[in-house]
Amino acid sequence: MNTKAFIFDLDGVIVDTAKYHYLAWQKIANELNIEFTHEHNELLKGVSRVRSLDIILELGKVTASQEDKDRWLVQKNEEYLSYLVDMNESEILPGVFPILKFLKENNQPIALGSASKNARPILEKTGLLPYFDAIVDGNDVTNAKPDPEVFLIAAKLLNITPENSIVFEDSVAGVQAANIGNMTSIGIGEANTLHEAKYIFNDFTTIDTHFIEELIKE
Ligand code: BG6
Ligand code: MG
């Protein structure tokens, strides 16, 4: 059987943490009197914490000292972490676990490719850590998505070429990163947002194992 690298983004793909990031940023935006909508939030998906704050400040045309920014970054993460305290396997998005299980049973290597610096505790809390052969997160990269660095490191750790790597992503920046890295991009979410992806699914419940088998064979 062929071997492909299966690389998963975390937030919004494996767990529904995108909503917590949104709530935590919204609190900061409110305090600064900056309007921050769901559409604005799309711009932050896949984007690092530091860059996310800059985008919000740009939206509100707010200039701030580094000291203020550092304070807001800490505040945002504390707020975000407060949503994760009771996290468990019930927060794994529907359909994800059966696909991970299928990949494991078929000896396909699995990696995480996430911008988050909170990735490891989330995988631990949801019990998914043992499914990952490699973890590349916000602590390991210098260039944020759409730079393909995070996925290229992941493929390398799995010993698979980019051309034989498949990336699951819910963010525009992440889909672009996979494409720029010459990987097969699979968008998880809305087709009109993720139209640059090679394949698009609403969520993992609509991905069947036959599709995965075909990807492995390709
Ligand atoms: C990405 C999220 O996965 O991680 C972004 O899509 C988030 O919304 C980024 O800002 C960084 O996450 P963290 O947990 O390090 O703040
Ligand atoms: Mg994501």
Automatic annotation (TrEMBL):
Q: Which GO terms describe its biological process?
A: carbohydrate metabolic process
The annotation note on the cofactor reads: Binds 2 magnesium ions per subunit.
Family membership noted in the UniProt record: Belongs to the HAD-like hydrolase superfamily. CbbY/CbbZ/Gph/YieH family.
Q: List the Pfam families hit by this protein, alphabetically.
A: Hydrolase (PF00702)
**What EC number(s) does this enzyme carry?**
5.4.2.6
In this chain, the site described as Important for catalytic activity and assists the phosphoryl transfer reaction to Asp8 by balancing charge and orienting the reacting groups is at: 114, 145
Q: Which InterPro entries match?
A: B-phosphoglucomutase_hydrolase, Beta-PGM, Beta-PGM-like, HAD-like_sf, HAD-SF_hydro_IA, HAD_sf, PGP-like_dom2
> Binding positions for Mg(2+)?
9, 11, 169-170
Going by the record, the broad EC class of this enzyme is isomerase
Q: Which GO terms describe its molecular function?
A: beta-phosphoglucomutase activity; magnesium ion binding
| UniProt catalytic activity | beta-D-glucose 1-phosphate = beta-D-glucose 6-phosphate
UniProt binding sites for substrate: 9-11, 25, 44-49, 52, 76, 114-118, 145
Keywords of this protein's UniProt record, alphabetized?
Answer: Carbohydrate metabolism, Isomerase, Magnesium, Metal-binding, Phosphoprotein
Q: Which cofactor does it need?
A: Mg(2+)
Q: What is this protein called?
A: Beta-phosphoglucomutase
> What domain of life does the UniProt record list for this protein's source?
Bacteria
